[in-house]
Amino acid sequence: MTPAIKPLENPKRIGLVGTGSVGSGWAAIYLARGFDVVACDPAPDAETRLRAFIANTWDALQQIGFATEQSIPQDRLAFAPDAGAVAAASDFVQENAPENLSLKQQVYAEIEEAVSPSFVIGSSTGGIPPTQLQAKMRHPERLVVCHPFNPPHLIPLIEIIGGEKTAPAVVDWALRFFTALGKKPVRVEKEVTGFLTNRLQFALLREAIHCVAEGIASPQAIEDAMRYGLGPRWAVMGALTTFTLAGGEGGMPHVLTIAPELQKWMDAGGNPKITDPEVQQKLIAAAKDITGNRPLSDLIAWRNARLVELLRAVGPGTEKG
User: Which of 10, 96, 109, 192 gets the most CB atoms within 10 Å of its CB?
Assistant: First the structure.
């Protein structure tokens, strides 16, 4: 008989398996919010890199109200030798291993050896369905996808997705936990490739790639169309609200009076093949065109600084107010 899952309502120590870009972001968030963190990563310099990342992001976390301590609580971050040791020392584990199904399943096996059946495991996967992730687990009801967005220490959204065997109580707990953490969790009701937000993102990216491949506009013009046309609106409201307000006082019913014409716009979208070598070469050239000679590390720092400014300006959503 499957044991009932009752997640620990208020975990104090968070375990992180993997401290790459996603795991590092999680570590910074949890430390900023007052949790103890224990982590593991096979890279020989993982702890040095993680502590440097946190030092470089602490000011940004203070600016957006996540970090309330002036100095970094270095003593609340510890490293363990492997996933089992991390789980044994934690109240909740967030798995951030590479997007490799067999590797992730191996991590879960190590964790399950070290913890009780009611221990909850979160996965940061960006696209592997949770039903596949939990397929070899002894207690699959404990696993839930908690997918952040890059850079995870700044972007508020967390996608919560349960698999076929995930206990409803675990999904409900994840929604409560990440809300209390100060993030914006959304429940994805059905398992689909790419989950929710990546599907939305790649719908736009598909057309941007099409415009590059077909020479419809320059790479910079495509960037500017997004930044100065769509971006400002989407920073304060979603696509469906934007679509509704396009009808003015008439709202969605008025918009839909021109549905036949709008359908033509939708049908005209491209379907480029990102696996096509010619398309890939055009994308590489486009990336070089828009980044120039700036080091990517400089662009990442620029992006993070602008995101902090935007998050401070936009603030928490009030769309239901």
Answer: 96
* In-domain check, residue 4: no
Return the bridge partners of 41, or none: none
Structure tokens at 60: 């940004």
Instruction: Show the tokens assigned to 63.
Output: 């600016």
Which residues lie below 8 Å from residue 193, measured CB to CB, with a gap of 6+?
Answer: 127, 129, 199
Same domain membership, residue 98 and residue 48: yes
By C-alpha distance, which of 1, 7, 33 is closest to 122?
Answer: 7
d(CA 37, CA 48): 15
Domain limit, last residue, from 152, 187, 222: 187
| pLDDT at residue 2 is higher than 70 | no
Residue 110: alpha-carbon gap to chain centroid:
24
Instruction: Write the pLDDT tens digit of every residue in 19-65.
Output: 999 999 999 999 999 999 999 999 999 999 999 999 999 999 999 99
Of 155, 19, 170, nearest to 80 (Cα)?
Answer: 19
Q: Is residue 164 domain-shared with residue 202, that is, in the same domain?
A: no
Q: Are 135 and 261 part of one and the same domain?
A: no
Sequence-ordered list of residues with C-beta below 8 angstroms from that of 215, at least 6 positions apart, any chain: none
Q: Quick check: pTM over 0.85?
A: yes
- Structural domains counted in the chain: 2
Counting beta carbons within 10 angstroms of the beta carbon of residue 224, is it exposed (0 to 12), middle (13 to 18) or buried (19 or more)? middle
Cα–Cα distance for residue pair 288/126, rounded to 1 Å? 26
Long-range contacts of 32-37, Cβ-Cβ distance < 8 Å, separation of 24 or more: 32/58, 32/61, 32/66, 32/67, 32/68, 32/69, 33/66, 33/181, 33/182, 34/68, 35/11, 35/76, 36/12, 36/76, 36/77, 36/78, 37/13, 37/76, 37/77, 37/78
Domain's final residue, options 142, 163, 187: 187
Are residue 181 and residue 202 in the same domain, yes or no? no
304: helix, strand or coil: helix
